[in-house]
Amino acid sequence: MSPRGRPRAFDRDEALDKAMRLFWERGYEGTSLADLTTAMGINSPSLYAAFGSKEALFHEAVGRYGREFGHGFPEGGTAREAVAEWLRASARDFADRHHPPGCMIVLSGINHAERNGSVREFLSARRRENLESLRARLVVAVAAGEIPETVDLDGMVRFYGTVLHGLSIQALDGASEHELLSVVADAMSCWPRFVQEEGVASG
């Protein structure tokens, strides 16, 4: 007996990777279905059959981006060292010219039509998850007595989250890895102001 249905004439993972890079480079709004089918080497019916819709494809592409380019916090070391390495690893990836610059989760939904509000909220939720992981690492440091209980956790999360997102914009504008790492070094020099290390004014 012959198999039921027709086998897909394309590699789904390869097609998803091409869609991810296109969304990363052009953003959700700037990527049309025609752009996607051309880049992925498939027709519209095949795209819908494999992924469901443009938005569903985008969700999968973001998931793939997270698996391939997402950065967690390294095991061991202090919170300061972990945050510094988290930012440095992100900066290196943002400036890597082997793929589109910056962070897909930051850049692919900056501009959006009202009809695509669900895409904006999806990306916003992913960014919040990323910052919650930063908060969780700082909470561990507080529990361990590494940083004081009086630390302004909200302020630290906002500040280092803003640095992370700003690095992405700078990379998009052509900043080099060296320039981004310099920003990280400057940002980490602000750490004592948050944790009020001995000899540093709290102002």
From TrEMBL:
Keyword Transcription regulation set for record: yes
Q: Which UniProt keywords apply?
A: DNA-binding, Transcription, Transcription regulation
DNA-binding region extent: 32-51
Residue ranges annotated for the HTH tetR-type domain, each copy included: 9-69
Q: Which PANTHER family match?
A: HTH-TYPE TRANSCRIPTIONAL REGULATOR YJDC, TRANSCRIPTIONAL REGULATORY PROTEIN
Question: What is this protein's record name?
Answer: TetR/AcrR family transcriptional regulator
Q: What is the lineage of its organism?
A: Bacteria, Bacillati, Actinomycetota, Actinomycetes, Pseudonocardiales
